[in-house]
């Protein structure tokens, strides 16, 4: 702001005393003080408003940067998901093809499904009979 030294202030007071006189000087000083206070308050409010606007702009900039980073991470995630899903889909289709016997044929030579032999009713299976003879015919 304006620099006023003590000497300049004394000179200003002397000129005001001569021009206004001792009767009007106290009222003029109060009016000058009130006017100076209004100017300072106005200046402070303008400065505070500018600071708030700067803070808002800073927050908006940070939000934009965060959104850009989030979009980049989302794109990277989608790319990684596609890289992983392609081999998984190929594996699923391979497994489906292997599970369908008409399309794939036998998967391994000699691995045909085992068939169960039908036993007549009332006869025990052969394996338990062999166990009985081994234990002494109990």
From TrEMBL:
InterPro entries membership: TatA/B/E, TatB
Compartments where found: Cell membrane; Membrane
Superkingdom as given in the UniProt entry: Bacteria
Protein name per its UniProtKB record: Sec-independent protein translocase protein TatB
Annotated family: Belongs to the TatB family.
Its job: Part of the twin-arginine translocation (Tat) system that transports large folded proteins containing a characteristic twin-arginine motif in their signal peptide across membranes. Together with TatC, TatB is part of a receptor directly interacting with Tat signal peptides. TatB may form an oligomeric binding site that transiently accommodates folded Tat precursor proteins before their translocation.
Gene responsible for this protein: tatB
Species of origin: Rhodanobacter lycopersici
Ribosomal protein found in the keyword field: no
Pfam family, one: TatA_B_E
Keyword flag Transmembrane: yes
Subunit and partners: The Tat system comprises two distinct complexes: a TatABC complex, containing multiple copies of TatA, TatB and TatC subunits, and a separate TatA complex, containing only TatA subunits. Substrates initially bind to the TatABC complex, which probably triggers association of the separate TatA complex to form the active translocon.
Key words of the record: Cell membrane, Membrane, Protein transport, Translocation, Transmembrane, Transmembrane helix, Transport
Topology of the protein relative to the lipid bilayer: Single-pass membrane protein
Region feature (Disordered): 78-138
Cross-referenced NCBIfam families: tatB
């Amino acid at each position: 702001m304006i620099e006023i030294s003590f000497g300049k202030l004394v000179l200003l007071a002397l000129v005001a005393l001569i021009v206004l006189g001792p009767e009007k000087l106290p009222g003029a000083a109060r009016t000058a003080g009130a006017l100076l206070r209004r100017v300072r308050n106005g200046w402070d409010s303008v400065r505070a408003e500018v600071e708030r606007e700067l803070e808002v702009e800073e927050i908006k900039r940070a939000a934009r940067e965060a959104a850009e980073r989030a979009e980049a991470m989302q794109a990277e995630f989608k790319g990684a998901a596609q890289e992983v899903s392609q081999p998984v889909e190929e594996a699923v289709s391979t497994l489906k093809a292997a599970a369908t016997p008409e399309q794939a044929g036998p998967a391994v030579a000699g691995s045909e499904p085992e068939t169960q032999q039908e036993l007549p009713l009332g006869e025990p299976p052969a394996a338990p009979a062999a166990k009985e003879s081994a234990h002494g015919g109990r």
